[in-house]
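Our collaborator T.R. sent over the components below with a one-line note: 'Predict the complex.' Nothing else. No constraints on interfaces, no templates requested, no preferences about which chain binds where. So this is a plain run: every listed entity goes in together, and whatever single assembly comes back becomes the starting point for the next discussion.
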Amino acid sequence: MNIHKVGVLGGGQLGRMLVEAASRLNIQIIILDAPVDSPAKQIEATQQHVHGDFTDADKIKHLANSVDVLTTEIEHVNATILETLARERIVNVQPSPSTIRLIQDKYTQKIHLTKHSIPVAEYRETLNHEAILSAGKEFGYPLMLKSKTLAYDGRGNYVLRTEQDIPDALNTLSKTPLYAERWAPFVKELAIMVVRRANGEIRSYPVVETIHKENICHLVIAPAQVDGVVRQRAQAVAEDAIKTLDGAGVFGVEMFLMDDGAILVNEIAPRPHNSGHYTIEACETSQYENHLRAILDIPLGSTSMKVPASIMVNILGVSNDMQETLRPCAESLSIDGATIHLYGKRECRKGRKMGHITVVGESMTQTQERIKPILATIEPGVTRDLALSPLVGIIMGSDSDLPVMKIGAQILKDFCVPFELSIVSAHRTPLRMVEYAKSAHKRGLKVIIAGAGGAAHLPGMVAAMTPLPVIGVPVRGSSLDGVDSLYSIVQMPRGVPVATVAINNSTNAALLAIRQLGAFIPGFLTKMERYMETMETEVLKKVQRLDSVGWDSY
Amino acid sequence: MNIHKVGVLGGGQLGRMLVEAASRLNIQIIILDAPVDSPAKQIEATQQHVHGDFTDADKIKHLANSVDVLTTEIEHVNATILETLARERIVNVQPSPSTIRLIQDKYTQKIHLTKHSIPVAEYRETLNHEAILSAGKEFGYPLMLKSKTLAYDGRGNYVLRTEQDIPDALNTLSKTPLYAERWAPFVKELAIMVVRRANGEIRSYPVVETIHKENICHLVIAPAQVDGVVRQRAQAVAEDAIKTLDGAGVFGVEMFLMDDGAILVNEIAPRPHNSGHYTIEACETSQYENHLRAILDIPLGSTSMKVPASIMVNILGVSNDMQETLRPCAESLSIDGATIHLYGKRECRKGRKMGHITVVGESMTQTQERIKPILATIEPGVTRDLALSPLVGIIMGSDSDLPVMKIGAQILKDFCVPFELSIVSAHRTPLRMVEYAKSAHKRGLKVIIAGAGGAAHLPGMVAAMTPLPVIGVPVRGSSLDGVDSLYSIVQMPRGVPVATVAINNSTNAALLAIRQLGAFIPGFLTKMERYMETMETEVLKKVQRLDSVGWDSY
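Returned assembly:
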């Protein structure tokens, strides 16, 4: 544990959260930014901060002389001087200046990714009106027009609906050269923070879903409520992309999830990223601490989530009225699991990032419920109901089992348990059964309910191929009164258990699944207690009625 | 969300962690402490900090004039001037100066608690040698001798083994008046952080276990691995104790758990406390943020744990060698779930609190495994294996079921699942069964395995009274081949599920329980996957042998 000094170009909220992480490790951060009381400088009392522009070569040199490592909280810095400092070994710059330069120009970034076979939306350079027209012919409309440089938080993007929009677009984006991208009709936007240590070791944070509003990040949902296969694919693409870049640090990889499950990389940030704020409360080591560990070449921390679910919402200035802007924060003081991060910005302006709130919970269902009153203060009347990943899978051997199994499905629905329901036959779709059973836990399922009749092999066969608990529902067939199904399901050999319930009793299968969830998700346990009380009350009412009416008239 | 200014007497690590929490809420903290770069001042860049002694009346007055609320991070402050400031309404002091004064004198504190019927160890004033002798006659030896004032971190305590120790004790504790306490032969030391808002609202953090080394806090285990009944009792005692004190803030309540389950209050701290450091990583809102919320009279945050388990270890100076002292931190960089907190103290001294490490995990089993290599750098050769609270309860109707049920117990042992095993008979100990079933989830159990034979009512009856999943093992009796047991267990009415396994198959009951745990505790899921692979390998070996030996010689 050596004492380190880290210089950071930029003293905004990202720098501030770097300082938070650094202080706990006795790492001193020295900031270069113009405001004397920039967010990051406020919480590091050193007199060594440099007051000036983070593109100013002299100031950067001055900072470089007093630190062990130089990093940035924004990519729009002076890459040339960083290259010189690194080349002349005056200071260690991380990530490498070549990476920063590459990312500064989004068009060059795209070419680089294409060259390394990273999937991106089709694009072409459009330096004038004619080139844009020609791109429109090739890619169709809507067409995404983007500034190559100095673009962030949606600034520098223009969506062309038709050719007629071109003059206005050129006018709006006049400052930098442009390129055009084929419109990506994504189903979700995903993001991953990837951290790489100087020695090449890479770790990924979970895949999250980002929801943008007016091109600015609004919500970050962690983990993303997508299929496990998509999650793995996104992680592989993100890691492959980062492996093509030089230098250490965390990198934010923004991606599109397409209708067919394909992943396209949108863009990369060579620094801590808004989509990784949630890691402070929700992960074992935050993106900020891991950025410091990576650039200082000390062991990386765990990127695993330590809570089941989290949602982050950005607090943007609604006007220059601070009180009005901070209303969601006032609301969140009364919300369990909510943590407020204000950035210490003295002045509020419309659209300015003033802070964020991270809400954590025992499940995504609970987290979503918790954040609703906060979102209501930001977007009154807007509901953002996520399609939650299922926790329970109901499968049955045949659609003839559905009348029995749907009763259990209704119970899960009544308890607000996210579930999926499908037909998987051991004898008629054996390969589908293998795939279902093998992938179930990777897709986020916590328990499987399998119903089958006769020579009822489905529950036991699925149990043989999943580490999850499997609940078997013996469905009564036309002969033997269901005893055939019961014995087929319950009399499993040692080593492969099936939790068997009574014949045709999918109600109890669902209730058993909820009890299993409730052992770890207190909200479901409370609901189960209430359900049991209701059962008791209903029987007691019948007692009363029997007493008052008499057994002969009952 | 108003902008607040809070003055803090003392700028050590507790003040520093208050600043961390304050910055995120745009609350400005102004510190009064002598060192210009005290831990707390380092991370709040305001020029308004006051440099001086936190017992200096003038300095306190100066600080009071520039803040909305005045609080302390240490109780050994100038209570008289605080009383004056509060009485003259110059500043709001929280907690109230009378509480600080009361707590400064541990003897007065004891009298106060006794007066309010809070259980404490017997004590009496011992102002001289004779009084100590007389206390020794009354309470016996060992006898605890304590300084009334200026005592913390074990300083001011002396354990008298015999009368002969009295002169040395008087010599050691010469500076302040003394009192004697009957030695409390506790089984564990427990602690709870209680937070109270000015409006009287009270919330408690979980009960934790503290392990001291040479009278200084060494480990904090959250939640304490004790029975749910003990947890509830400790919480009630702690809250009752805090209700007797005036003012807002967090309070640390240290307690003894006695052999008979009784709780005795040891002492109270009117401020954030070492036993609450873990709340930063492990709880929905930290003790530091809740202290600020309480004294500013804004809504309190949730005190629930957001992770299943955490263990905190203090980093004390081993000498004046910083590198040597920080070895546990260097080790913990490679430990998943470990977060280092260094306090920015420039000089290392033997016994000085330099930082702490909090480790979190998916279960107490995992957390304990994670922290072992860190503890090994502090206490080589010492193993501190906790008796973990059981996650699974195995019960059976009669000891005649034990030969069947112990096979499942062995599986749980092999998988390192903490479990309990007992006899609970539906027909012969019905009340015990009710109590067992009703309390199971409160005691921390996640699943119950119940074995019974014949008219096997135990699993179903237990399931009728617990919201937890119940796994039923039909035990084969002398007649009917176990079918009687199977039907009695599996054919439960709608509403009350029992997860039934094959007749006599407690192996599968245990494996099913582990699968249920594994759905939420990834470590168990991984072990289950490995177990299933081993089963496969073993069968494949038999295939090989059959192939090579031939079926006729097999």
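Summary for T.R.: Chain A touches chain B through 80 residues (CB under 8 Å).
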